[in-house]
Amino acid sequence: xxxxxxxxxxxxxxxxxxxxxxxxxxxxxxxxxxxxxxxxxxxxxxxxxxxxxxxxxxxxxxxxxxxxxxxxxxxxxxxxxxxxxxxxxxxxxxxxxxxxxxxxxxxxxxxxxxxxxxxxxxxxxxxxxxxxxxxxxxxxxxxxxxxxxxxxxxxxxxxxxxxxxxxxxxxxxxxxxxxxxxxxxxxxxxxxxxxxxxxxxxxxxxxxxxxxxxxxxxxxxxxxxxxxxxxxxxxxxxxxxxxxxxxxxxxxxxxxxxxxxxxxxxxxxxxxxxxxxxxxxxxxxxxxxxxxxxxxxxxxxxxxxxxxxxxxxxxxxxxxxxxxxxxxxxxxxxxxxxxxxxxxxxxxxxxxxxxxxxxxxxxxx
Length: 365
What we know:
Blueprint: E1 11-15, E2 21-25, E3 33-34, H1 42-52, H2 68-75, H3 79-82, H4 87-103, H5 114-124, E4 128-129, E5 135-136, H6 139-160, H7 167-170, H8 186-195, H9 201-212, H10 216-221, E6 227-228, E7 231-234, E8 247-250, H11 253-260, H12 281-294, H13 302-315, H14 320-327, H15 332-339, H16 344-364
Antiparallel strand pairs: 1-2, 2-3, 4-5, 6-7, 7-8
């Protein structure tokens, strides 16, 4: 049996799509780095040292002008990339883009055609398991990559003075299934509550998501400082650098009860791990996945509760403007995405009830 390759801490090996063995550095809070040099070489040690110091790996001056790596070094810190993003959005966007950058670092940007992009999107659209056993890829993932590649090529072509159509724009987006995350039903909410009692972290998580309509990243940082005078006020991280939207909601008795029943909460965040540490965005998402599975709800997720909040408000007769105030949305189109699961039967009853009553009243006259 061959001996297992011994690699430095936070360095792992993988086989890329060309069948070539490659190495990467991954550590929470640091940029993922794909090594150019082989382990055991001085160049590899230099790359590893830079990665551990948080130095951005892409395009440090070692790539020729006009290559993807050269463009990436400039794009990563440009206003074209950072101008309309907060730190979380910036991190998410780069995490989508960096694997593509690592694969095509040495390729000249001017050489890409639309069929190259289509091939890349086709590969990204295939669902598969990563080395942690998590499902990645799919049509939505491919379209997210397309969304990040377009401004990357726009910037690169402008920087290089290339006057030709953006190949990403020419590549058609993939048709993705509609609906996205499953919207929790009332029965599913009741089932989760029956399994996770008041006074437990899983129950507190549900009540926070359900009564504040927050995304995972915001729910993970939600704490005592956000509540005053019976109201919860948050600035959604996704819109901090763009609209600066502030969301203020009444603290529902169900949420207040869940907070008060906890034996331990954090001083900065309500939700803390068994070690008393706040959850990261990804960590809270994974724990919700586990808590939903334990309650027999594999189809449910944290983001589905945000949609459930919008559904409930819509079914109760909330207007689009009222729903925007609840979830921090800015357009009717965004609200429509989240209220698609509103009960059509109940909404029809609400719409036709007054009409029926008025007609009956006229008939009695």
